[in-house]
Amino acid sequence: MRDIIAGMTRAPVTDQELELAKDSIVNAFIFGFVKPDAVVNQQARLEYYGYPPGYLENYRSNIAKVTKEDVLRVSREYLHPDAMVLSVVGNESAFDKPLSTFGQVTEIKLDAAGNGAMPK
To answer: pTM to 2 decimals?
Structure first.
Protein backbone atom coordinates (compact mmCIF):
# COMPACT_ATOMS: atom_id res chain seq x y z
CA MET A 1 0.00 0.00 0.00
CA ARG A 2 2.83 2.38 0.87
CA ASP A 3 4.49 1.70 -2.49
CA ILE A 4 1.26 2.44 -4.35
CA ILE A 5 0.68 5.68 -2.45
CA ALA A 6 4.30 6.78 -2.87
CA GLY A 7 4.10 5.93 -6.57
CA MET A 8 1.09 8.20 -6.96
CA THR A 9 3.24 11.13 -5.80
CA ARG A 10 6.09 10.35 -8.22
CA ALA A 11 4.46 9.64 -11.56
CA PRO A 12 1.08 9.98 -13.27
CA VAL A 13 -1.39 7.11 -13.05
CA THR A 14 -1.89 5.09 -16.22
CA ASP A 15 -4.75 5.75 -18.63
CA GLN A 16 -6.28 2.44 -17.58
CA GLU A 17 -6.07 3.29 -13.85
CA LEU A 18 -7.63 6.70 -14.43
CA GLU A 19 -10.53 5.31 -16.47
CA LEU A 20 -11.18 2.54 -13.95
CA ALA A 21 -11.25 5.08 -11.12
CA LYS A 22 -13.58 7.42 -13.02
CA ASP A 23 -15.94 4.58 -13.93
CA SER A 24 -15.99 3.32 -10.34
CA ILE A 25 -16.71 6.78 -8.92
CA VAL A 26 -19.49 7.54 -11.40
CA ASN A 27 -21.09 4.10 -11.01
CA ALA A 28 -21.01 4.28 -7.20
CA PHE A 29 -22.41 7.81 -7.33
CA ILE A 30 -25.52 6.67 -9.20
CA PHE A 31 -26.39 4.10 -6.52
CA GLY A 32 -26.34 6.81 -3.85
CA PHE A 33 -29.73 8.03 -5.06
CA VAL A 34 -31.80 4.85 -5.10
CA LYS A 35 -34.04 5.84 -2.18
CA PRO A 36 -35.74 9.20 -1.63
CA ASP A 37 -34.25 9.55 1.86
CA ALA A 38 -30.76 9.19 0.38
CA VAL A 39 -31.46 12.05 -2.02
CA VAL A 40 -32.71 14.29 0.79
CA ASN A 41 -29.75 13.33 2.99
CA GLN A 42 -27.30 14.12 0.18
CA GLN A 43 -28.94 17.49 -0.53
CA ALA A 44 -28.83 18.38 3.17
CA ARG A 45 -25.14 17.43 3.37
CA LEU A 46 -24.28 19.55 0.33
CA GLU A 47 -26.18 22.51 1.75
CA TYR A 48 -24.62 22.13 5.19
CA TYR A 49 -21.05 22.00 3.83
CA GLY A 50 -21.62 24.84 1.38
CA TYR A 51 -21.19 23.04 -1.93
CA PRO A 52 -21.91 25.25 -4.93
CA PRO A 53 -25.29 25.21 -6.69
CA GLY A 54 -25.39 22.56 -9.42
CA TYR A 55 -22.75 20.39 -7.72
CA LEU A 56 -24.73 17.17 -8.14
CA GLU A 57 -25.88 18.04 -11.65
CA ASN A 58 -22.27 18.64 -12.73
CA TYR A 59 -20.65 15.82 -10.74
CA ARG A 60 -20.36 13.27 -13.54
CA SER A 61 -19.03 15.78 -16.08
CA ASN A 62 -16.53 17.11 -13.53
CA ILE A 63 -15.26 13.59 -12.83
CA ALA A 64 -14.89 13.05 -16.59
CA LYS A 65 -12.65 16.16 -16.79
CA VAL A 66 -10.08 14.82 -14.29
CA THR A 67 -6.69 14.24 -15.92
CA LYS A 68 -3.66 12.19 -14.95
CA GLU A 69 -1.89 15.46 -14.22
CA ASP A 70 -4.71 16.45 -11.84
CA VAL A 71 -4.30 13.18 -9.94
CA LEU A 72 -0.53 13.65 -9.70
CA ARG A 73 -0.84 17.28 -8.55
CA VAL A 74 -3.41 16.45 -5.86
CA SER A 75 -1.49 13.33 -4.78
CA ARG A 76 1.62 15.42 -4.25
CA GLU A 77 -0.36 17.94 -2.23
CA TYR A 78 -2.31 15.58 0.02
CA LEU A 79 -0.48 12.23 0.14
CA HIS A 80 2.58 12.13 2.37
CA PRO A 81 3.88 8.53 2.42
CA ASP A 82 6.70 9.36 4.83
CA ALA A 83 4.16 10.57 7.40
CA MET A 84 1.93 7.51 7.21
CA VAL A 85 1.13 5.61 10.40
CA LEU A 86 0.32 1.92 10.23
CA SER A 87 -2.05 0.61 12.92
CA VAL A 88 -2.17 -3.13 13.46
CA VAL A 89 -4.43 -5.03 15.83
CA GLY A 90 -3.99 -8.71 16.49
CA ASN A 91 -1.92 -11.51 17.90
CA GLU A 92 1.69 -10.72 16.97
CA SER A 93 2.67 -14.40 17.00
CA ALA A 94 0.12 -15.04 14.22
CA PHE A 95 1.63 -12.45 11.83
CA ASP A 96 3.67 -13.79 8.91
CA LYS A 97 6.61 -11.45 9.64
CA PRO A 98 7.68 -9.12 12.43
CA LEU A 99 5.94 -5.75 12.53
CA SER A 100 9.38 -4.11 12.75
CA THR A 101 9.65 -4.94 9.04
CA PHE A 102 7.47 -1.86 8.49
CA GLY A 103 9.43 0.48 10.78
CA GLN A 104 9.41 1.54 14.42
CA VAL A 105 6.85 -0.34 16.52
CA THR A 106 5.00 1.16 19.49
CA GLU A 107 2.99 -1.48 21.30
CA ILE A 108 -0.12 -0.60 23.27
CA LYS A 109 -1.32 -3.30 25.63
CA LEU A 110 -5.06 -3.47 26.32
CA ASP A 111 -6.67 -4.93 29.39
CA ALA A 112 -9.61 -7.33 29.26
CA ALA A 113 -12.02 -4.37 28.97
CA GLY A 114 -10.17 -2.99 25.97
CA ASN A 115 -8.64 -0.09 27.89
CA GLY A 116 -5.10 0.90 27.10
CA ALA A 117 -2.78 3.82 27.27
CA MET A 118 -0.07 5.14 25.02
CA PRO A 119 3.37 4.24 26.35
CA LYS A 120 5.38 7.09 27.84
So the answer is: 0.70
| Signed CA dihedral, 78, 84, 88, 94: sign only | positive
Bridge partners of residue 116, in order along the sequence:
110
Q: Say what the pLDDT of residue 47 is.
A: 93
All structural domains of the chain: 2-80 (3.30.830.10)
Secondary structure of the chain: what % helix, strand, coil (to 5)?
60, 0, 40
Contacts of residue 8, defined as CB under 8 A and 6 or more positions apart, other chains included, come to 71, 72, 75, 79
| 8 Å CB contact between 68 and 82 | no
Choose among 20, 45, 16: nearest CA to 32.
45
